[in-house]
Design brief:
Layout (H helix, E strand, L loop, with lengths): L13 H4 L3 H5 L1 E3 L1 H4 L6 E5 L4 H11 L8 E7 L13 H18 L8 E7 L8 H11 L5 E5 L6 H17 L4 E3 L3 H4 L12 E5 L2 H12 L2 H4 L11 H7 L3 E6 L5
Parallel strand pairs: 1-7, 2-3, 2-5, 3-4, 5-6
Antiparallel strand pairs: 6-8, 7-8
Helix pairs in contact: 4-9, 5-9, 6-7
């Protein structure tokens, strides 16, 4: 993650979200309802940990179905620790893709069978590369694909650019688009009207897949450990929100 996002101290704890009426109204979905066997899952991840935060549980269910996954990593996440002596950009540019690879292996996936595209775009600059992302997605998407990316209102410039690019490509290629909030768990308040609750659904995760997601997130040590007197890039309370027995998605009205 980069740090040019909407700040909200530590963010609301999961106990506060448990009282949210809007979240409670979000309908439950089984993965099979969204991505039936044989359907290809295309994930656009702005940064190397986003595929786990967004969809670690979903990805864990693709063990043995790696041929049905296309993972697009937009950046190498080198901007997550500005002005850090421990984590300079050069080190992060090398380290974070390694963390991603380890995380995917911890999900039980054979990374050699995944179609994994690394775009090497600049962290924090995706709004300037949005047209490139749209064009790239348009070339890769096929009829029947399920495209999953970060929510276009997520409060982080790269996440929002990925979401907007996803919307444009999904409309052009007529594929279904679930958008996933990540940083919204940090800056939003429970029942926050800025979130598109009418489009919200909870993808139910099996206990085993949630456990694998937890292990995979732990592989992103650069994002979870303090940097000197700085707190972890991914706050503890945000981690807790993302480690529930579901993955929250906003199904776009533009989707077929």
């Amino acid at each position: 993650m980069s740090q040019n996002l909407i700040q909200a101290a530590q963010g609301p704890p999961w106990s506060a979200w448990q009282q949210a009426a809007q979240l409670a109204r979000a309908s439950w979905m089984l993965l099979e309802q969204l991505c039936s066997p044989g359907r290809r899952l295309v994930i656009l991840a702005p940064h190397p940990d986003d595929e786990i935060l967004m969809a670690g549980g979903v990805l864990a269910s693709f063990h043995g179905r790696e041929q049905d996954v296309l993972l697009i990593s937009a950046t190498n996440g080198e901007g997550s620790h500005p002005h850090s002596s421990q984590w300079p950009e050069r080190r992060l540019r090398h380290q974070r893709p390694l963390e991603s690879r380890h995380a995917l292996q911890l999900l039980g996936l054979d990374v050699n069978r995944l179609d994994w595209r690394r775009l090497n775009l600049k962290d924090g600059n995706l709004p300037n590369d949005e047209a490139f992302l749209v064009n790239h997605l348009n070339q890769l998407l096929k009829p029947g694909d399920l495209l999953l990316t970060t929510w276009r209102g997520d409060g982080h410039c790269d996440h929002e650019a990925a979401g907007r690019a996803g919307v444009q490509a999904a409309q052009a290629r007529r594929v279904q688009l679930p958008e996933v909030p990540v940083w919204a768990w940090h800056w939003a308040s429970p029942d926050d009207p800025r979130l598109p609750w009418p489009r919200a659904h909870r993808l139910q995760l099996r206990d085993a897949h949630l456990a694998l997601k937890r292990q995979a997130l732990a592989a992103h040590a650069s994002q979870l450990q303090p940097d000197g007197d700085r707190p972890p890039v991914v706050p503890v309370q945000l981690q807790a929100c993302m480690m529930q027995p579901f993955e929250l998605i906003f199904l776009s009205v533009e989707s077929p």
